[in-house]
Design brief:
Layout lengths: L2 H20 L3 H20 L5 H9 L8 E10 L2 E7 L5 E2 L2 E3 L6 H13 L1 E13 L13 E13 L7 E7 L14 H12 L6 E2 L1
Parallel strand pairs: 1-6, 5-8
Antiparallel strand pairs: 1-2, 1-4, 2-3, 2-7, 5-6
Helix pairs in contact: 1-2, 2-3
Length: 206
């Protein structure tokens, strides 16, 4: 599922979640539950998963609906970028993952970098904030998601895999391995190389 269909379904699910949070009238609750089911049916029809499973997943989300946040760190050595191979799909990506409640953005990326690659880093700058739904990531994701990309400097540690990663490596811009495009796209890797070469570049948004 991709494009406008996914955006509509995500918005319907968010409206339903927020409505279920604040509604006390039983008829309004029924209507919002129906809206949630419609969003799940749309995603299933578009190849985005099983409708019942989606309804259950949406039901676990509580409170006012807001975008989720994914953080990715780009660190370099000798002009090559640090990537990790994901255990879940055997493809390569920038180290990163969900931002945890209680972490600042820089704390989140430092934690993810050391957990997934073994390298300790310091954050240099925020390079880009991408709305995942506005870019051709595959596969589709049922929630609205912001992806934050940071330029980092390695300060310690050594290459080390984890339960989430199978390999750790450094790659030249013209010799990238197959990418896990649900997590990172080729143009995003290029953007990080651009910021590595010129730290004065402005932060990209959207």
């Amino acid at each position: 599922m991709c494009g406008q269909w996914l955006t509509w379904a995500q918005r319907l699910a968010a409206i339903a979640q927020s409505g279920l949070t604040y509604s006390q009238n039983e008829y309004e609750i029924e209507r919002y539950q129906a809206v949630l089911k419609i969003a799940a049916d749309m995603m299933e029809a578009g190849g985005g998963g099983n409708a019942q499973g989606l309804v259950e997943m949406f039901g676990r989300e509580k409170g006012y609906a807001t975008p989720k946040v994914d953080v990715r760190g780009a660190a370099f050595r000798d002009g090559r970028i640090l990537l990790v191979k994901e255990a879940i799909d055997g493809l390569w990506t920038l180290p990163g993952g969900w931002a945890d409640v209680g972490d600042s953005p820089s704390e989140a990326i430092r934690r993810e970098m050391v957990e997934e690659s073994g390298f300790e880093v310091e954050v240099v700058k925020l390079c880009a904030v991408y709305d995942r739904s506005k870019h051709p990531h595959r596969p589709a994701f049922p929630f609205h998601l912001y992806k934050m990309f940071f330029l980092c400097e390695i300060t310690g540690g050594e290459a080390k895999t984890s339960h989430e990663t199978l390999e750790v490596g450094f790659f030249a811009e013209d010799a990238l391995p197959p990418l896990s495009e649900g997590r990172v796209l080729p143009f995003q890797i290029k953007t990080m190389f651009d910021h590595y070469r010129d730290r004065s570049l402005p932060t990209y948004c959207d």
